[in-house]
Amino acid sequence: MVSAIPGISAAMPRLDTAAVSGSAALSPSSAATAAAVPGTGATDFGAVMRQVATDAMDTMRGAESTSIQGIKGEASTQAVVEAVMAAERTLQTAVALREKVTNAYLELSRMAI
């Protein structure tokens, strides 16, 4: 077995061997840990998609509240523009992701059984 690099091992999260091998189901917390370590292959797609959707909703809600604060005069113009631009990027990402999922579904539905 390869020993850990001394300076990096403290910064990297530890994964148990069952989660890495995929023999056990991942909990949401271990899915986030596995997603943080590239190349493990132990990510739970549903958990990742849930996290992406939650982050997108939080970004949109934050942009909305910042915009309302800007209308009331409680937030600067720069803060409002930054929040709206972040919401726009999030929406563009969500639309692109939806298109990819739709295209993948259509490709699967065209396959002969």
Number of helices: 5
Number of E-type strands: 0
Q: Biggest β-sheet, characterized?
A: none
If you average the pLDDT, what whole number results?
A: 75
Q: Shape from CA axes?
A: elongated
Distance between the termini: 43 Å
Number of domains: 2
> Are there runs of 5+ residues with pLDDT below 50, and where?
1-35
State the share of residues found in helices, binned by percent: over 70%
- The fraction of residues in strands falls at under 5%
User: Which class do the helix and strand fractions yield?
Assistant: mainly alpha
C-alpha-based Rg, rounded: 20 Å
What order do the helices and strands follow? HHHHH
Task: Describe the protein.
By secondary structure, the protein is an all-alpha fold. The chain has 2 domains: 1-42, no CATH class; 44-113. Helices cover 71% and strands 0% of the residues. The protein has 5 helices and no strands. The chain has helices spanning 6-9, 17-21, 28-36, 45-72, 77-110. Helix 4 (45-72) runs antiparallel to helix 5. The chain starts with 5 loop residues before the first helix and ends with a helix. Residues 1-35 have low confidence and may be disordered.
